[in-house]
Amino acid sequence: MSARAVAKLPPIGSNPSQGISARNIERYEGLTGPSYQLSSEKEKFNLPQPTILKAYVDTKSGSLDTWPAHASNQAASNNLQRPKSHDRRLVPVSPNGNPNEAVMPKPKFLEQLEAFLQKELRALESVEVGPSELRLQAYREVFEYLIEDFKTYKPLLSAIKNEYEMMLAYQREEIRHLQPLRSMLVTVSEQCDQKIIALRNEEKQEMTDLKRDKRKLMEQIDSMKEEQLSLKEQIQQLQDEVASEYHKYRDECDARKLLVADINDLRYQQEDYQKSQSGMQEGEEENKEDPVLLKIALKKAREDLSSATQRLNEMIANYGDVVPRRDFEALEKQYHNFQEEMQTMQEDHRKLMSEHDTLLEVHKQVLAQRDEFYQELEQLKRSATPRPFWDKCAAHVEGGEERWKKLSENKNSDQLVDVLLAEIVGGDLSGADLIEGRGRGEDVPKYLRYEGKVKPRKIGKRDLGLLIKDVWREKTVYDNEKNEGKRSRLEDFMYDYLLRRFGLEDTAIEWGYNLLEASERFQEDVRISLFHDILIGKVDEEVYHSQLQTLAKLIQALTKTDAEASNQGSLSKENFEQAVKEFFPLKSEESIEALMNAVVEELKLEEGNNTIAYNELFTEDDEGRNGPFINKIREQEKEERLQYIEDIKNELGEKEEVKQQELRIAISIIDPMIEKNQLLYYLSRAFNVDKDKLDQAEPTETEVVLERLRTGAVNRSGEGDMVGVN
Q1: Of all helices (H) and strands (E), which one includes residue 611?
Q2: 435 pairs with which residues across the strands?
Q3: Is the same domain home to 583 and 502?
Q4: What is the DSSP letter of 168?
Q5: Is 364 helix (H, G, I), strand (E, B) or coil?
Q6: Among 116, 90, 115, 118, which residue's Cα sits nearest to residue 104?
Q7: Domain span at residue 332?
Q8: Beta bridge partner(s), residue 450
Q9: CA 354, 359, 360, 362: dihedral to nearest 10 degrees?
Q10: Using an 8 Å Cβ cutoff, are 491 and 531 in contact?
């Protein structure tokens, strides 16, 4: 049957109270695309048999109403029946609803149309005026009724309606084509902004380099200026020395001229004397020297010698004990430095002496305490039993040395005994004897609906692991058989499982409470922690199945590598590591190294053994527990998922609310290789709407959106900014 036939008004003459309120609202939810059109098919109604008609009720004839043009805006009535094309009676109604105030009424058919329209809008919760597909569909149906009843104007009204429908479809198609362009425009704009920021950063770096070069050049200029001043000082000193030497030269030159004049005078005197004594000395040899001249020269030489000797003695007497000024200043400076160092050392010596005296006092006290403690120790040795070495328990407690340190921190021997007993019996010895029931409210899961006290069973870790393993196996069979592959909620399945396994409802609920309590106690186990989070709704079940699919694909990849190498059921350490890197291309080197260390720990490989039996890494013990390799993969997957969500949070910034389009852009930037279906799944989970209704998603608080993503199977698809997880 077409949509037109579904919304058809009841036949004329039928009971008006039937067929109007029963509406299938879901038929409007699919009418959001432009391809929807109302069917022009007509529904035919046969007249009832005369024998079943009621006399004076069903056979009563109707009457025509008249409606003046000036009364088109009067008297809107409430709670009317569905529209009819006959049986129209004029009922005076005032605008405020008072029948005593008579005004011109509307035709019955118009009143029924308006009442039908208002009732449809109320049923669809679209009373408020605004753009809405649901309101438009209601008005479409009313317009269809008008077209069907006005036969004369039906072709024109149908043509008008078709034109509007074609225009609406065209506009929707245009909007659909423009949405990707808008997203592309936003992406291109952000890329341009990033390029501009990068260019600005390069310019800033270049400006920084130029400023650094400028500072170096300024320092070089200052050093050259200082060097110039130093050279000027040296030139001035050299000029002064040249002037001094010039004065000395002038004095020496004048003295030499005076000496030459004296020598000439003596020579002239000698010549005159020789001429006067020429007669007396004729008999002497001509080459014999003049004794007078020799006497004069000797006398002059003696005078000069005595003068020089006197000056030398005076110099020795005056400056014999004098040192150069330069050496004196250097020695004086060294003296001051030594004096300052001596004062500092004296002060340090005084402090050291004071500290030494204090240490001597402390040493005496420590010696006294040592003697007291030694005596007390001797007494304890004689009276006390040997203290147990509690660190031995670390090798036998679940979780190893790290968990034992947490359990034994700040506890005495008596408390450590209680801890060991709690680990042995699998429960808390200090816990309550009975568990308080949560009641029978609708917000309580069905497997926990109980009023009163529940007996604790203290389920051990081994029994809990076997029970969880059986729950997952039974749930997989249940979903395949009952739900045709669709996954049911774990908390809904738990009631049926416990009831089927333990028979009685009280026993099943008792096991449900103890199962939940035990899973809370053993949170350090990755497998039990994941089951607990899925059971209370903190994590989506898809995370568990995603981990199973990852492990299945990993063993397939290792098997394929083995088939290409030797097909012996084992791989060399290098081939195994290369296969893991190819399967996890986004993991860092630190993460791969952590996985390889887990392999060595689980298989207990010796240093020279490079053969890895990879099938043993995927086995389970009788409790359903995996080895360190599988646990490390699950830990890294959880940390990588949280890091992925943190990157999305950083990309969104400090926004209190986020829109669907903003989250889409942030995920596309963080994970550019994500597929469209996966992106739609993330968006629908974040805004809690179906994939085909993402355009109608309302802005949601950022923390709510991120929390929904954290509880889902959200993982990075391609290369991006990642932090290595060890």
Answers
A1: strand 611-612
A2: 454
A3: no
A4: H
A5: helix
A6: 90
A7: 326-383
A8: 439
A9: 130
A10: no
Distance from C-alpha of 667 to C-alpha of 675, rounded to nearest angstrom: 11
Q: Classify residue 242: in a domain, yes or no.
A: no
Q: 571 near 614, Cβ under 8 Å?
A: yes
Q: Mind giving me the DSSP string for 228-251? A: HHHHHHHHHHHHHHHHHHHHHHHH
Q: What's the rounded Cα separation, in Å, for the pair 542 and 537?
A: 12
How many other β-carbons are positioned within 10 Å of the β-carbon of residue 665? Answer: 17
| 566 and 522 share one domain | no
Return phi, psi of residue 23, to 5°: -115, 140
Last residue of a domain, one of 119, 149, 179: 149
Report the candidate in 162, 187, 128 with the shortest Cα–Cα distance to residue 651: 187
Rounded alpha-carbon distances, angstroms, from residue 700 to 156, 186, 548, 716:
46, 21, 32, 23
Strands 453-454 and 571-572, bridge-based pairing: unpaired
Q: 345-394 pLDDT, tens per residue?
A: 999 999 999 999 999 999 999 999 998 888 888 887 776 666 677 776 76
Concatenated DSSP letters of 522-538: TTTSHHHHHHHHHHTTS
Mapped onto helix, strand or coil, the DSSP state of residue 724 is coil
Of 726, 718, 719, 710, the closest CA to residue 646 belongs to 710
Strands 657-658 and 611-612: unpaired
Residues 662 and 657: their CA atoms lie apart, in Å, by 10
Let me know whether 367 and 498 are in one domain: no
618/692 same-domain check? yes
**448, 513 Cβ separation under 8 angstroms:** yes
Instruction: Quickly tell me which residue has 């405020």 as its tokens.
Output: 96
| 243 domain-assigned | no
Q: Summarize pLDDT for 652-698 with one digit per residue, the tens.
A: 888 888 888 888 888 888 888 888 888 888 888 888 888 777 777 78
pLDDT digits (tens, 9 = 90+) for 382-426: 766 666 777 767 666 666 677 777 777 777 776 777 677 666 655
CB neighbourhood size of 116 (10 A): 21
Distances (CA, A) of 687 to 7, 131, 261, 520: 32, 22, 125, 30
Query: Could you give the CA distance from residue 669 to residue 649 in angstroms, rounded to a whole number?
Result: 12
